[in-house]
Design brief:
Elements: H1 2-22, H2 30-37, E1 47-52, E2 58-62, H3 75-85, E3 93-99, E4 104-108, H4 119-124, H5 130-144, E5 153-157, H6 161-172, E6 179-182, H7 185-191, E7 194-200, H8 204-214, H9 217-230, H10 237-250, H11 274-285, H12 291-296, E8 321-328, E9 331-340, E10 343-351, H13 358-373
């Protein structure tokens, strides 16, 4: 009996000693614990901020005013301006028509950011198909030109140069070598002939979701530039920088340490601070206009660029983190939201001085996962017992 009691006491002590270590850290325990967790050499003195999503209180900070490379975390700004200036339910339309008497093909685009060069992929994802437009055009020219593909020209408006190059290459392989001329939208509208093809993209909302989920650099650039044009600025990085800064100013966030070289985060010359991005994520979380941005973020161990993260590094955090990843050689970043029992935290982690190579990146990402794993825990809503 005495032996049984001793075993019971020892077991209870062991349970009590283990449980706190596995439990999610409370706000008061985060600073000391994170100071230790972030000392690992694989992160090489990162910048990090943790903000209470309810109160806006900064729970933890490290190098938060230091300018760091954001990598693809920059796409959060691109997504936000997209929701500011483009209608989420709008689509991009591209039409192709023929004027046999003028031996002219007229392509009237709308700067569709997602025309596909793969017909099967286009149909699967409801994207505009370049092969469909290309083959239909070949058939129409042959029919109108006695079976010949010679002596035709193409005038076009609102197509990206890459799409024009893809179309030229597609036709060249099939013996069609028309001359190309870029014209205004009004000119293609007035010149329209017999319709050959009309292709639509998915909605802006669907394109944005894909861009955020899989960190598509091209879509990020194009959506941000289209947003700049819709805001009345130039369709280039200058226009993008203008609307990025305008958004931050509107949210009363200091943009003095922001450096914008592209809208995707691909350049190593881009710069943000953990403070700037943390404040930004905190403020847009409270605005219904940006709900789609939150919903489009990859989920830890579940979807997108986070589907293979946390599953082994911090299993307790699977499904509890929504965040934008960022990766460059020598840089691993992550920014978003983490569920923690009775609250949600906003976090930004910028490790941009790590060793080069994939092995160092994997170690840095794993270290960031483990840090977040210390505060992640399922939300437990308060329950009120019925009155007796």
């Amino acid at each position: 009996m005495l032996l049984f009691k001793r075993i019971f006491v020892l077991s209870l002590a062991l349970i009590l000693s283990i449980t706190p270590a596995r439990a999610a850290l409370g706000p008061e325990s985060i600073p000391a614990a994170f100071d230790e967790l972030l000392k690992v050499s694989s992160l090489s003195n990162p910048a990090m901020i943790i903000i209470d999503g309810t109160t806006g209180q900064v729970i933890y900070e490290k190098n938060i005013y230091s300018q760091r490379k954001p990598a693809s975390v920059m796409k959060v700004l691109a997504a936000a301006v997209t929701l500011d200036y483009l209608d989420p339910q709008s689509v991009f339309n591209t039409t192709v028509s023929i004027s046999p008497e003028n031996k002219t093909i007229i392509i009237r685009g709308s700067l569709d950011p997602w025309i596909s060069s793969d017909h099967n992929a286009a149909r699967k994802m409801n994207r505009a198909s370049l092969p469909y437009m290309g083959f239909n055009t070949l058939s129409a020219v042959k029919k109108a030109n006695s079976g010949s593909l010679k002596n035709y020209k193409v005038i076009y408006s609102n197509l990206y140069s890459q799409d024009v190059a893809n179309l030229k290459a597609f036709w060249l392989k099939r013996g069609f070598k028309p001359t190309f001329k870029a014209v205004s939208d009004d000119e293609t509208l007035l010149a329209q002939g017999d319709l050959i093809a009309s292709e639509n993209s998915p909605t802006v909302a669907e394109i944005l979701k894909w861009m955020m989920l899989w960190s598509d650099n091209l879509l990020s650039e194009r959506l941000a530039r289209l947003s700049a044009r819709a805001a009345g600025y130039s369709l280039d990085i200058k226009g993008v920088e203008t609307i990025f800064r305008a958004l931050l100013t509107q949210l009363e966030i200091d943009d003095s340490k922001l450096v914008v070289v592209d809208a995707s985060g691909l350049s190593k010359k881009n710069r943000i601070t953990a403070r700037l991005m943390g404040e930004f994520l905190y403020k847009i979380r409270k605005d219904e206009k940006y709900a789609l941005l939150y919903d489009s973020l990859p989920i830890s161990g579940v979807s997108g660029t986070l589907q293979n993260r946390f599953t082994t590094t911090a299993p307790a955090a699977v499904g509890l983190v929504r965040a934008k990843t960022g990766t460059l050689n020598g840089t691993a970043t992550l920014a978003g939201y983490v569920e923690s029992t009775d609250r949600e935290y906003i976090f930004v982690a910028l490790a941009d001085d790590i060793a080069l190579g994939n092995r160092a990146l994997d170690k840095a990402r794993a270290a960031i996962d483990r840090v977040l794993g210390r505060i992640a825990a399922p939300n437990i809503p308060a329950e009120i017992s019925p009155a007796p």
